[in-house]
Specification:
2 copies of one chain form a homodimer. Chain A is of the alpha+beta class. Chain A has 3 helices and 11 strands.
Chain lengths: ~170, ~170
């Protein structure tokens, strides 16, 4: 047996002018407001924030089409780090993805690092082969994850500003 | 996107005449003594028992051939439950297996349930497709996992007996 583990990674990073605690709270408690690039919406978010816990989101297109995504959390460190994958569904059932949309497995490592008065948000998304990485990139990874990072930042910064001393 | 998650499972179960605490201790602290079917040995066991922690074993054949296995733990509940997979290496790097031996991903769910004065040991091993399940079965899953369950049971039962009141 030989093994390869190069990661086939795509990543995005962004500075958010709000502390990690605020970003984490918006990330996990107001997920439906920023998860999908507008005008897409995310009417359903079922997150069980523990290793093995279910991660379900359903996005809705402006035309009303539902796009369900099932996965699990692998690591949860509040205010610091979330790792999740679609390689399993809850209960550690191996998941094989097929169809028109996302037909490949990935694992996402999201970190929130304190940087000055704000947060360095970084999302690293890894794939099992380079074909999947390329397909994900061509599907618009950088644009999509960039837009939703911006939406996340807007909510977190609005909350941080509202709480700042006058 | 559509998803399938049937599990493609192989499993084995065995009653062990020792309490779960003893079985868990032997499982995790004396791994090298039972992990490989004798006369194979397991000179290297590097286990970091937490979600995302490294699971490395190196088995050695009687002819001296090394067989390394890398993976991670997904869930660790002492005395009750261990879940591990070779779909990742430590650090959440997606792992693609190739070569002569085990060239497929799997996830193992090992449970220790108290049953009378002893333990019901069950190992469920799931695969991403039925071809892998079949290949694993043909490689001798039931024989191999059966032998090592027997080796685990012998060690646990010897310890439980040594500790029993006269």
């Amino acid at each position: 047996m030989t093994a390869t583990d190069s990661g086939h990674e795509l990543s995005i990073t962004r500075y958010i002018q709000a502390p990690p605690e605020t970003v984490y709270r918006i990330y996990t408690e107001r997920t439906g407001e920023w998860w999908a690039p507008k005008p897409y919406a995310t009417p359903i978010v079922e997150w069980d924030l523990r290793p093995g816990g279910r991660s379900q989101t359903v996005m809705k297109s402006p035309e009303g089409e539902d796009m369900p995504h099932e996965g699990v959390f692998l690591e949860v460190v509040p205010n610091e780090r979330l790792v999740f994958t679609n390689a399993f569904t809850a209960g550690w059932n191996p998941q094989v993805l097929t169809g028109d949309g996302c037909d490949f497995a990935m694992v996402a490592i999201v970190t929130l690092e304190r940087e000055g008065a704000g947060t360095r948000y970084t999302a690293r998304v890894r794939h099992w082969d380079d074909a999947a990485r390329k397909r994900h990139e061509e599907m618009g990874f950088h644009e999509g994850w960039g837009i939703v990072a911006h939406q996340l930042a807007e909510l977190a910064e609005a909350e941080a500003e509202a709480k700042a001393p006058a």
